[in-house]
Amino acid sequence: MLSSADFVSRTPETEGPPQEREESQTEAGYEGTMRSLSSGQIVSGLVVHLDEHGALVDVGTKSEGLIPQQEIGEPTTEEGRPLAVGQRIDVYVLKPEDEEGAALLSKKRADYEAVWKKISRAYETGEVLTAMVTERVKGGLVVDLGVRAFLPASHVNARNVQSLERFVGRAIRLKILEVDRDRKRVVVSHREAQAQLREKRRRATLDSLKEGQVRRGIVRRLTDYGAFVDIGGVDGLLHVTEMSWSYLPHPGELVKVGDRIEVMVLKVDRERERISLGLKQILPDPWEEVGRKYHVGDLVIGRLTRRVPTGVFMRLPEGIEGIVPSAELETDSRAKKEEVSLPTEEVEARILSIRPSERRLTLSLRLAHQERDRREVRQYLARQSASNRLTIGDIVGDSLHGSALKIGSSQSANEKGAAPPPISAETPWEQPLVSGENPPCESSASAEASEQEKAPSPDSSAAAAQS
């Protein structure tokens, strides 16, 4: 069985009066919260005072640590000052206690250690860093990563390595190639950093692409069959047939290298990393307007653009093209169509058939030419009728009268032994007509009677001989 002695507290009693015991316990508790420092340690502290001698930093010890002025380092505040009261910073412990019992600290050394730590981590993980180019040296450039780093000329992402001076004073992206802490050597690459960023951006773009999306891109290069457009780190093919609703001989007639355009994603092949793009899909469809504007039999104006074995294509003002079959060309164009050049001016054609849903339009130059001739004849007759009131009978009567006069004069000349007059190049119907004149038309019988009256009879000729 347990006795009452077993329940007696075994806590040792503190010697001395109660007040002394409380002060001793408070001091012991305060000292237990104090941080113990060691040389080479990096700790965090709060800036409590600044003057021309340096800064006092509360690092959790009995007294504030001191940062000498020469150990403060580079500015860290927005105002361009290295430190500010109330700012929390990391410091490097140079000495845990000096002659006065205060810790001797260094912010510059802590920043230096942090830089090497950051460089080592970036080297291991492949992280891309940003640094300022400070100078041009033989073989490359020098960049500031917090420590001096060398960028070889062969690793600068530039076409002309002879003009590296233009990078001085610029912040560029870098990838760590080599780190040697003992020799304080760091080698970086701008070219590989750019390639890594492009690959990251390309993968992100491929993952986000969907068919039907409209993306903004830059034309990088042109070929005979299309243009390659950068739509965010990845190039897509904009085929020449997807550029315009009408025929386009070459992509260079519509876009140029460096142009910023909007395109639609038509197809994405992530396995082969191929993207098909379209431009005409985001433009208004002219066939919808043509279907509402034109009908079969209408006369349209356009330009002949190119020949094909079956005819000639004609482009309308809306930008679409219709086919003019060989049988519907004009006579001279149908005879030797390969030898006759296409007219540069606009021509007129008649619509034979139009199927907007199939995007087909058939035209005829022959019918338009016939219609133009008929229209010109009607206009000519209308002008003549309005000015002279000339009829067909007038034209026929004048022609017959002129013929009779010429015949009579030629017969008289022959009977008298004179040489016949020269034949005129003018035809009877080309003789000018006097306005309002309507000469009588003589018959052939009356003409013969008149000639007989004028000619001497045989009997009278014989009597004259006898006498």
Describe this protein's structure.
With 467 residues, this protein is of the alpha+beta class. Among the domains are: 39-112, Nucleic acid-binding proteins (OB fold (Dihydrolipoamide Acetyltransferase, E2P), Beta Barrel), CATH 2.40.50; 126-196, OB fold (Dihydrolipoamide Acetyltransferase, E2P) (Beta Barrel), CATH 2.40.50; 211-282, Beta Barrel (OB fold (Dihydrolipoamide Acetyltransferase, E2P)), CATH 2.40.50; 286-372, Nucleic acid-binding proteins (OB fold (Dihydrolipoamide Acetyltransferase, E2P), Beta Barrel). Helix content is 29%, strand content 28%. It is built from 9 helices and 20 strands. The strands form 4 sheets. Strands 3-2-1-4-5 form a 5-stranded antiparallel sheet. Strands 8-7-6-9-10 form a 5-stranded antiparallel sheet. Strand 11 and strand 12 (226-230) form a beta hairpin.
Mean pLDDT: 76
Q: Tell me the series of helices and strands, N- to C-terminal.
A: HEEEEEHEEEEEHEEEEEHEEEHEEHHHH
**Structural class of the helix and strand makeup?**
alpha+beta
CATH-defined superfamily of the domain at 286-372: Nucleic acid-binding proteins
- Poorly predicted runs: 1-15, 23-32, 416-467
Per CATH, which architecture of the domain at 286-372?
Answer: Beta Barrel
Radius of gyration: 54 Å
Number of helices: 9
Strand order of the main beta sheet, please? 3-2-1-4-5
CATH class of the domain at 286-372: Mainly Beta
Query: Could you tell me the strand content as a percent range?
Result: 25-35%
CATH topology (fold) name of the domain at 286-372: OB fold (Dihydrolipoamide Acetyltransferase, E2P)
Percent helix, as a range, is 25-40%
Basic shape? rod-shaped
Compute the separation of the termini in Å: 212 Å
- How many strand segments? 20
Biggest sheet architecture? 5 strands, antiparallel
